[in-house]
Automatic annotation (TrEMBL):
Biased composition (Acidic residues): 23-33
Record's compositionally biased regions (Low complexity): 67-79
The protein's name in its UniProt record: SGNH hydrolase-type esterase domain-containing protein
Bias-annotated ranges (Basic and acidic residues): 47-66, 103-114
Domain SGNH hydrolase-type esterase residues, every copy: 183-373
Region spans: Disordered: 1-116
TM stretches of this protein: none
Amino acid sequence: MAAALKGGNVFAEGHGLEKAADDGEAEEADDESAGSPAANVAPQRPGRLEKVAEKLAEAARSRDGPAENGAAAEVANGGQMEGTPAADTAEQPDQAAKPVKAAAKEEPAGREADAMPPWFSRKTTAAVETVKRPVEHTHGAGRHSTRRARHSNSVEDTWLQVHQRYLKEAKEADSHGGWDVLFYGDSIVEEWRGTFLGAPWGPFHDVRKVWDEFFGRKPYTAHSMGIASDGVEQLAWRLQHGELPVDRDRQPKVIIVHVGTNDIVGECTNELGAKVASGIEDILTDLHSQLPATHIIIMAILPKGEVWPNRCSGAINTANEALQSLAQSRSNHLHYLDAGQAFLSESLDKNKFEIKETLMPDSMHPSAVGMRIIATRLEPLVSRLVATPLETGPESERR
């Protein structure tokens, strides 16, 4: 998959959300990460990195082989592992405004998880401070700081373990004919499973009921494969390393992609939004290349924060406009859906809106009611596309 985003940094979900929720005054924004539970764990304690190293080593042993790239050894020696909850608690001021990057195109690695993600083995070029910084309750920081105190699942299930679980699910599904509809993305997609990083999480519990109502009782089969904290690079890597169906004679009828909010952090410039859209475009292009008989729905990045517009609104709007334009240019197989407007209240003052707390209690993740709103807009499109096979091949043969 062609690389389109500069950087390679892994951001925990919602990193820099105080900035997104600010009322637009950059000087009042706090640089501290305050987003999803993955980003808001307590400062690293003595022995924390060693515990993460043990988890990786255990995961490697379960695959009958040592962890590649020396990832476990690196962490044991104090190196930073990007893409894990432990690493995401460290502040990276020089990298905060850079998005992640779609992984370079490479041959699929199969489904044995024999390759470690590249961000697991990067070495830190400078010492990382782990001093706890006080939370400055600027405008928009209240909801997710409350959730931060509630959550305790950020270490128990690691990203790699969730990916390995998905490999097994994909392999088993292929042996039984595969799924008709697949969802890929970040924690908003993982919400459909009622989990966060693979572990059940209370606020997402009722979302599973919404899934069962809208997608679990249909003539088609549907499955969700999202991982909390994923950005463009992480999703691209997963799709290249075994999470896509391998039976090309039984391709999914529809794939839904919802990713990008974790890449729009830091300064949230319009340029950043364009780069995020470019990276998503690489994913969509690669998906169509591998699965030409599959309809693809790209979901717009949802608004986040407490008021709208805010510091990240321009970047989000830029990304969404680019994705909508892309879908229009590839309308035969690519479809764009934006449910974001439903999350905004009536105008408060001078085109300022509130992001409804009942629909997005923590300023980033939709509640079960919010996910129901998404489902009511998404499911009819999915049903229509399932019933509309794509024309493929030089002779426009229907599958």
